[in-house]
């Protein structure tokens, strides 16, 4: 599909409408409507928790949902996704015009744009920010989101110094021209990810090479979003205040206090002590709150999964990988450890996304219950192929977001012991440490197996398949298709199929190609999907119109509807 053609975009919009119906069906009653009168301005203070210190306050490098929440409040880009995950213009006055070959996008900016300190925001700031995100000097772990840019590979590797004047053009202060390397159905969606968000060059350059990063000085006017930073304490949290220079509808809240907690258990206890106005509910406590008036549930496009590194023995053998997958009864894990709060799955692409394949199965045609007998046989066959009688010492590394995650991982390790006779050690680490370990695994065996999760960045299968399984992708941390296993040549063919699907115009054919690739990925156990999540939350009855979308975010203009009543 050539991006930008009206017929193609409307087709995608229709898919998103279906998804919007899916999302709307799962909302609870925990968030009050807008019928109550607002409290005075000095009481428009919302206390909202994230797991912190956040891993990054730089939109060019952000990888996780907790960091993304304050970033989305402080920074914006050319486009955004609304509550139904439809692409909407943001800094751009309207959606771009697109050349007939689908390779050139021309954006007209809104007039009078300013950063939060009053500095003018022009097209030069837009292209500076995008170029910075893909530059070799930043070495961003999420630069891949902008890999469609013409000559991305050259600037990302340092072969050329900049894309400005090449694929990033500024004919005037209000016009941004972006050239891409191939027509792609999902390009506008990629621009909704923070890698393309605009930062104030003056602030970034001022603190380059200094004793503290520029993100410690965001309060000087680094962003142009609905809020600006008043204070940032790495131990306690971030205080955001209304940005009166914001170009869109202004927030009703005067202050958004983003409070740091170690885990969801701490958030939940703080909410009960009336120290927060919103909290995520740990899965162990979901049954205690579902009947409460402040409870709400939102289906989210999040999959939790296990990764096995193809470059680490014994996971270079497909049968051994399949054995570890089939030894897990996901239904039992979700029912017991996760308190039935989520849905067991064999999928990479979650339910509710375009391209979700109901016919997909686990490896060897299995269900989410697994198959212990088949798992044991596959392990024996794989070890025979490798000429070994014992497995090397194995360790599962993960970040325990809450106690239920610990329980789930313990149960999975127990299933491996019971069904395979394999002892797997467990290593729990902080979230930031796990991200560092994952980022270091490309083309090496430094991390053999770990637990991770993925939340949709935009509503297209490319975000789930090509982003993870393509050759050289930043997120191909388990080295699919870039390994010495017997399956590697077939995996390379899958990567070629994914790249073809990315640019196919016919949507029906495109989804078939993604479905075929996903089944092959699952058969080779590139992931061991575990469950698809819901967000269970509690919101104070004084908070009105606060509703997370399926990305667990609040679109920038939606803050104008959120307020506190007396």
TrEMBL record:
Residues 1-24 form the signal peptide. CDD domains: PBP2_OppA (cd08504). It is found in: Cell envelope. Pfam families: SBP_bac_5. Keywords: Signal, Transport. Gene3D superfamilies: Dipeptide-binding Protein, Domain 1, Dipeptide-binding Protein, Domain 3, Periplasmic binding protein-like II. InterPro entries: Peptide/Ni-bd, SBP_5, SBP_5_dom. Transmembrane segments: none annotated. Residues 86-474 form the Solute-binding protein family domain. The keyword Nucleotide-binding does not apply. Its main location: other. Belongs to the bacterial solute-binding protein 5 family. This is Oligopeptide-binding protein OppA. The lineage of its organism: Bacteria, Bacillati, Chloroflexota, Ktedonobacteria, Ktedonobacterales.
